Amino acid sequence: MKTLARSILSRFGLTIGRVLPGGLLIDHDLQSEFETAFRLVRSNTMLNRQRLALVFELARHFVRTGTAGSFVECGVWKGGAVGMMAYAAKLAGQERGLHLCDVFDDIGEPDWRVDGERAVREVGGKEHAQGRLQPVRGAYDHKGGHGTIEACRELLERRIGCSPARLHFHAGWFQDTLPRLAATISPIALLRVDADWYASTRVALMSLYPCVVKGGAIVVDDYGGYDGCRKAVDEFLAERELHPFLNHVDEECIHWFKE
Fold it and tell me: Do 99 and 156 form a contact (C-beta atoms < 8 A)?
């Protein structure tokens, strides 16, 4: 009976499963695979289980449904979320193009005028929140330092077994790299934006949202966490008269599907 029910629900992209802490459903048959992936990536990510489980399921879904496009992350740190996407895709029998966009240095400055009190506090005061394209030194020291391309390659190539030819690194400030990427990238199935601040979130959406295929997913990590990120998303959707249903993964992260 369970097999029949799973067969019927799968036609609609649904699964029977059990609930992970935080309320996100994972196919019961894949629970052990998710746990394996989680152990592989957890030292390379700041994301909680709910957010990692989301990209795991989305990546697997796009492979299983044949949805065209690369997986793109804007704001990579040490590559854990991309590692989850890659592992899930390989589990479903396919490797996708993986585009990792980051300055691979300490985070850039927020702008105190739009990014809010939390952002200013976290970078050490208004003098470090002028919106300049320069790293806030020491911002990631409490997390073991900023991400590097070498750390990402070690995870993705050595631990997960990704083909180097599938990995594309775009190092630099989003304002410089993303418009160029948008002009050359193949369609995007999964776009994950972990850009924290207003300016970086806005340029990510402005540049790459048009490349997302119909039915593709957009994940925004900091919508409920930083004032500027929320403002950038709300403005972007309003300017284009888009009204997607925003799925809340937890108190900060949202995602929606492109119609």
Answer: no
Say whether 239 sits in a helix, a strand or coil: helix
pTM of the complete model: 0.89
- DSSP letters, 166-191, are GEEEEES-HHHHHHHHHHHPPPEEEE
In this predicted structure, the answer to whether residue 9 has a pLDDT above a threshold of 90 is no
Residues 8 and 119: their CA atoms lie apart, in Å, by 46
What the chain holds in terms of domains, given with CATH numbers, is 30-104+147-257 (3.40.50.150)
Beta bridge partners of 27: 17
Integer-rounded Cα radius of gyration of the chain: 18
CA distance 257 to 234: 15
pLDDT of residue 251: 95
Write the single-letter amino acid at 53: A
Q: 17: buried, middle or exposed (CB in 10 Å: 19+, 13-18, 0-12)?
A: middle
Q: What whole-number distance in Å separates Cα of residue 55 and Cα of residue 59?
A: 6
